[in-house]
Amino acid sequence: MALERTFSIVKPDAVAKNHIGAIYSRFESAGLRIVAAKMLHLSQEQAEGFYAEHKERPFFNALVSFMTSGPVMVQVLEGEDAVRKNREIMGATNPKDAFAGTLRADFAASIDENAVHGSDAAASAAREIAYFFTEAELCSRTR
Ligand code: RTP
Ligand code: MG
């Protein structure tokens, strides 16, 4: 499997509960390297643009409202099979369905406040990374 990058967000609920370090530790333990990171308080426009694919869904307004409710950490993770590996570490969207030991099982309270975001495919990873970071901000340690 080739080296890959994925995009991740520690959502407002997990930042508020002081779980940034615990979540970063899970990434690192799984062999994913954090190659860029920053704290942001998303504007409504930023959150709407980021989740544009869900614009017509009934939960869209609640999702944007939650994502702008407090600061988030945005980061780029790099490693073998990074997109799939991160989704595995995260667990299912609804924490009730997430396997024990996943981030959402351990840190999420509900499907609406579910601790983390992770890109779902290589193409969305590239788009989401570019949404928040310039190429110069990515400190890859492998090239
Ligand atoms: P994310 O994009 O945040 O990593 O989550 P995901 O891929 O696991 O799930 P996705 O389908 O992309 O949905 C984005 C976020 O919208 C909320 N959601 N609510 N009430 C519902 O049926 C519902 N479905 C999705 C979740 O907070 C989800 O993380
Ligand atoms: Mg998604």
UniProtKB/TrEMBL annotation:
Annotated Pfam families: NDK (PF00334)
Binding residue positions for ATP: K11, F59, R87, T93, R104, N114
Domain Nucleoside diphosphate kinase-like: 3-140
Presence of keyword Magnesium: yes
Recorded catalytic activity of this chain's protein: a ribonucleoside 5'-diphosphate + ATP = a ribonucleoside 5'-triphosphate + ADP; a 2'-deoxyribonucleoside 5'-diphosphate + ATP = a 2'-deoxyribonucleoside 5'-triphosphate + ADP
Cofactor(s) the protein requires to work: Mg(2+)
Top-level division of the source organism's lineage: Bacteria
UniProt-listed Gene3D superfamilies: Nucleoside diphosphate kinase-like domain
GO molecular function, one term: nucleoside diphosphate kinase activity
Enzyme class: transferase
Keywords per UniProt: ATP-binding, Cytoplasm, Kinase, Magnesium, Metal-binding, Nucleotide metabolism, Nucleotide-binding, Phosphoprotein, Transferase
Entries under InterPro entries matching the protein: NDK-like_dom (IPR034907), NDK-like_dom_sf (IPR036850), Nucleoside_diP_kinase (IPR001564)
Record SMART domains: NDK
EC code(s) of this entry: 2.7.4.6
Primary localisation category: cytoplasm
Residue positions of the active site: H117
Function description: Major role in the synthesis of nucleoside triphosphates other than ATP. The ATP gamma phosphate is transferred to the NDP beta phosphate via a ping-pong mechanism, using a phosphorylated active-site intermediate.
Oligomer and partners: Homotetramer.
Stated family: Belongs to the NDK family.
Name of the featured protein: Nucleoside diphosphate kinase
Organism this protein belongs to: Alishewanella maricola
Gene: ndk
